[in-house]
Design a protein that fits this description.
Number of helices: 48
Number of strands: 14
Helix content: 55-70%
Radius of gyration: 40 Å
Distance between the termini: 76 Å
Strand order of the largest sheet: 2-3-4-1-5
Structural class: alpha/beta
Length: 982
């Protein structure tokens, strides 16, 4: 009670209290006492009670409370007939909250909603909406289960008496002579319910021995049979029953009903509310009354009630319960349910309408129109996967009925609210076939339906390589219809068809128009879809307003219980965790998202999870762990047709893992017709980035340049595929990597500097670290070693802080200077780098190293090293002078290319140079003269390699770090070279 008093005394800040506990525990009694005290303290107190047995009006009990607090015009806002605000449910709820805020601003108010567990889903949504609006009032909810209103609620959990408390209660009420086994039995039978214990105490001590069942029966036995029958039949009308309805149901005068019920009032089974109505003292009493009717009597009572009650929802409740009585009753139940459901839809209670129509469908072979009404209600409730199945069934029913209009409506619904929702190709083409059949079957006079189908088919065709222009042309034709519903649907599908980088700004305008048009048409799910598209577009643009749009989307999706949009919000949350460098949290959230996506039936749930996992592992430097997984996803028949990003990721991961043949073959398949022939999609830009990453490892300058030209127009965008479910940072980084791969270091540096800045603006901390490391590599190739090491040091620290340990280790290894100095000191050599030098003995291999280190990036023939610059003579030449000149020219060209190439490309060039050197060595003697026998080049290659290896091993014994640098920068073969910036 103190907590409730605190709540109403601080109502100005908005308070929500939920009183929970099982039936009969005293929730209502506590709130009644709290209400009396609140009134005494000067508060205005209003009560609303939910109906526990069905038949409640849509959004009940808010209508009477709003009418009393704000006037009937506010209650009317919950009807679609009101024209003062947009017809969308969210807009109506917001208008109600605004008027309620004004109504309670001056007068302290407490609202009590009893038995919220019995409320329909729409009423629960409105309650949650108002609770989270933080209005200056106290709202008290009673609920049998824990609060459905989330963290905003202050929960008071009431529990039944335990055995000791049961004994104390009985003793307090004068029943002290019962033995412990009997009091334990009483506790077990009553579950410690204060209500039942109070009833048993009222019956007296002697009645305890019979147990609870006998005690309830004795309560009914004390009243007249006519009263008991009236109680039983009246119970079919609900917890609270008007005298007039009870009289009509029993076919007797109202005055006689009132007189007859006096005995029940005296027995405490009901309470009389003047001349208006009576109420059962508790739902448990009402259920005991119902149990006294035979099955036939219960059916007859419900059948008569259909003609007696006035409200459509109550009519439907009774019609449903009477349906098993006869085929005629079943037919009537279907019609009554359809009428009630239509009214519920107009009052934004989509979930209640869907539930009612589901019951109507069970009463026989449903018509196509009934199936369509059910499908529409389920879709409006946000249950997308279920709706698709129902539309499919509706199409079959329409075909059987030979109804082309309803067949067309069902075929449109089968597509869902997204494009490409059916990933199994057989199933996809089956649905497209039905939609084409629907279009061909429709009369030319049905312009609106025809255009809707044409746009759907054109938009679906985009995912098969079709042009976006056809979609936009049909969209403009639909605009001319003046049909807000058709236009809202067309805008959403058109937006989805334009989900490529080139349309990102046009899409944002379409998303904003969709929000406005769908709200005006009262199509909640498409208005929410528009807000979802707007949020995605802002993330694709790297616009800082994206966070605010996401916050609004989160609130609306949560308040409207749109599970499909909640799933997208959760996916974007994973992306934001990755951008913040919280990779472990992101992985946990990604797994939860997968379960959520499978539950709502999102076709991309598994692909999104794969994208999250690949991004996380790649950032951790563990991408190779998922190579087999990436191959499996890339080959999945459920992947969208034309989707190449996962295959590009296979090439990237394979190259990083050293599986170069797999990487090359995958890239060859992707680039067979040129990269510009790759299909446009929402993942096109991220697919090109993966290709660039692979070219870096493989040193494929030509392919890198091709990708560069395609990506360049989108340099200012982040690489964000699909519905912003993952982000690979600024596109500038991919451009910088490509430029470095084809050897334009000026461009590479400029792009990577912009990438660092852009990723920091985006808040993509892992990609900012990667961009720093990439920039350091470019700077080192340009000889700017100090700046490179500063960047690498920063990248290593950032990576370690974000759990990117493998990348941090790799970058830390590059922090060691790769520029070795080697100086002669008496009869030994001083080798190392500043601050880390060691003395080693004079070896032939040290002399070879001295020549190589004196000429960085310049290949020196092993023959020249072995003979100290002198060359052996030979009397004749096997290779003609023209061929020898060509070989030599190519060798010089390669020698110049190696220093400017990526590591992988440089390695390929060295292998080619070795082959040329071997050929020249085999046919060329000292002084460049041809010879007729082989041997000197090969002998030189072998002896130089062994000598250098022995020298490095000696250095390793003195300082492994210096030796490690020599290992990674010295290459031996027919041509030997020192490449410190490799």
């Amino acid at each position: 009670m103190r907590r409730l008093e605190y709540a109403w005394r601080s109502a100005a800040r908005g308070r929500l209290v939920t009183v929970t506990g099982p039936a009969g525990v005293g929730k209502t009694r506590l709130c009644e006492e709290a209400s009396d005290r609140a009134r005494a303290a000067g508060l205005r107190v209003l009560w609303g009670r939910c109906w526990s047995d069905g038949g409640a009006p849509a959004l009940w009990p808010w209508q009477p409370m709003l009418a009393e607090l704000c006037g009937p015009e506010t209650a009317q806002l919950l009807s679609s007939e009101a024209e003062t605000v947009h017809p969308a449910r969210f807009s109506r709820f917001q208008a109600v909250a605004d008027r309620l805020a004004r109504a309670v601003a001056e007068t302290p108010t407490m609202l009590v909603i009893d038995d919220l567990h019995a409320a329909d889903p729409g009423a629960l949504l409105l309650t949650r909406f108002i609770a989270r609006a933080r209005l200056p009032l106290t709202m008290v909810i009673t609920q049998r289960t824990p609060s459905p209103l989330g963290e905003a609620s202050d929960e008071i959990a009431l529990r039944p008496f335990d055995p000791a408390e049961t004994r104390d209660y009985l003793a307090t009420n004068g029943i002290e002579r019962l033995e412990a086994p009997l009091t334990d039995t009483i506790h077990r039978l009553t579950d410690g319910s204060p209500l039942f214990l109070r009833r048993l105490v009222a019956l007296g001590e002697a009645d305890f021995v019979g147990g609870l069942r006998e005690a309830i029966d004795q309560s009914f036995a004390r009243i007249a049979p006519e009263t008991a029958r009236l109680l039983a039949i009246g119970a079919t009308l609900g917890d609270s029953v008007s005298w007039a309805e009870a009289a009509a149901l029993l076919n007797m005068p109202a005055a006689r009903v009132i007189d007859t019920m006096d005995g029940a009032v005296q027995a405490g089974l009901v309470t009389a509310n003047g001349t208006e109505s009576f109420a059962y003292s508790h739902d448990l009493v009402r259920r005991a009354a119902l149990a006294r009717l035979t099955a036939a009597e219960l059916l007859d009572a419900h059948a008569r009630a259909v003609d007696i009650v006035g409200h459509s929802a109550r009519k439907a409740h009774h019609a449903v319960n009477a349906a098993p009585r006869s085929p005629e009753d079943a037919r009537r139940a279907i019609e009554v349910c359809r009428a009630a459901a239509a009214k519920m839809v107009r009052r934004f209670s989509y979930e209640q309408a869907a539930s009612l129509l589901a019951q109507a469908v069970s009463f026989g072979e449903p018509s196509a129109e009934l199936m369509l009404e059910w499908s529409d209600a389920v879709l409006a409730s946000g249950r997308l996967a279920e709706a698709r199945v129902l539309y499919d069934q509706a199409a079959d029913a329409a075909w059987d009925e030979q109804d082309p209009l309803r067949y067309a409506r069902a075929a449109l619904g089968m597509g869902g609210i997204w494009l490409n929702e059916r990933r199994d190709q057989v199933e996809r083409h089956r649905i497209l076939g039905k939609q084409r059949k629907a279009l061909a079957w429709l009369p030319e006079s049905e312009a609106a339906l025809r255009l809707r189908l044409e746009l759907r088919l054109a938009a679906e065709q985009v995912y098969g390589g079709g042009p976006v222009a056809d979609v936009l042309k049909t969209l403009e034709e639909i605009r001319l219809l003046g049909d807000h519903g058709a236009l809202a649907e067309a805008l959403s599908l058109s937006h989805h068809a334009m989900l490529t980088p080139e349309y990102v700004r046009e899409r944002l305008a379409i998303a904003r128009e969709l929000i406005s048009v769908a709200a005006a048409a009262g199509i909640d799910i498409l208005a929410l879809q528009g807000l979802c598209w707007q949020t995605v577009d802002l993330f694709h643009l790297g616009d800082p307003r994206a966070d605010r749009s996401l916050a609004e989307l989160r609130v609306r999706a949560d308040l409207m219980e749109s599970h499909s949009v909640r799933f997208i919000v959760a996916e974007i949350d994973v992306m934001l965790l990755i951008r913040a460098g919280r990779l472990a949290e992101a992985e946990e959230q990604a797994a939860r998202c997968l379960a959520m996506g499978e539950e709502v039936g999102d076709a991309d749930a598994a692909a999104y999870y794969g994208g999250h996992l690949l991004a996380i592992r790649w950032l951790q430097g563990r991408g190779a762990d998922l190579l087999d997984f990436a191959v499996e996803v890339a080959n999945s028949p459920l992947l969208a047709e034309g989707e190449f990003a996962f295959r590009a990721m296979v090439a990237n991961l394979a190259a990083e893992a050293g599986r170069h043949e797999l990487a090359r073959s995958t890239l060859a398949q992707l680039a067979a017709a040129g990269l510009d022939a790759l299909p446009q999609s929402s993942t096109w830009l991220s697919g090109l980035l993966a290709i660039v990453e692979a070219t870096v490892s493989l040193g494929d300058a030509q392919l890198a340049r091709e990708a560069y030209e395609l990506m360049l127009p989108f340099a200012e965008l982040p690489t964000t595929p699909s519905l912003a479910i993952v982000c690979f940072g600024s596109t500038e980084r991919g451009l910088g990597l490509a430029a470095a791969t084809f050897g334009d270091l000026d461009r590479a540096e400029a792009h990577l500097r912009r990438a660092v800045a852009a990723n920091l603006r985006l808040g993509h901390l892992p990609m900012a670290a990667c961009s720093k490391a990439n920039l350091a590599t470019v700077l080192r190739r340009r000889g700017e070693h100090r700046a490179a090491e500063e960047l690498l040091d920063s990248a290593v620290n950032d990576a370690n802080a974000m759990g990117m340990e493998a990348r941090a280790r790799a970058w830390a290894a590059d922090l060691v200077s790769r520029h070795i100095t080697l100086r002669r000191r008496e009869n030994r050599w001083l080798v190392g780098f500043p601050g880390r030098e060691v003395l080693v003995e004079d070896l032939i291999g040290m002399r070879h190293l001295a020549q190589l280190l004196a000429h960085p990036d310049v290949p020196i023939p092993a023959v020249s090293l072995a003979h100290g610059g002198a060359e052996a003579m030979s009397e004749q030449s096997i290779l003609d002078d023209q061929a020898r000149a060509a070989y030599t020219a190519r060798a010089r060209e390669i020698a110049h290319l190696i220093p400017e190439s990526s590591p992988a490309r440089a390695e390929e060039l060295r292998r080619e140079l070795d082959a040329l050197a071997a050929e020249l060595g085999a046919t060329t003697g000292l002084g460049g003269r041809g010879r007729t026998f082989a041997g000197p080049a090969e002998r030189a290659r072998t002896s130089v390699r062994k000598a250098i290896k022995r020298a490095i091993d000696v250095v390793r014994a003195a300082d492994p770090a210096v030796a490690a640098v020599l290992d990674s920068t010295i290459s031996t073969g027919y041509q030997c070279v020192y490449t410190p910036d490799r």
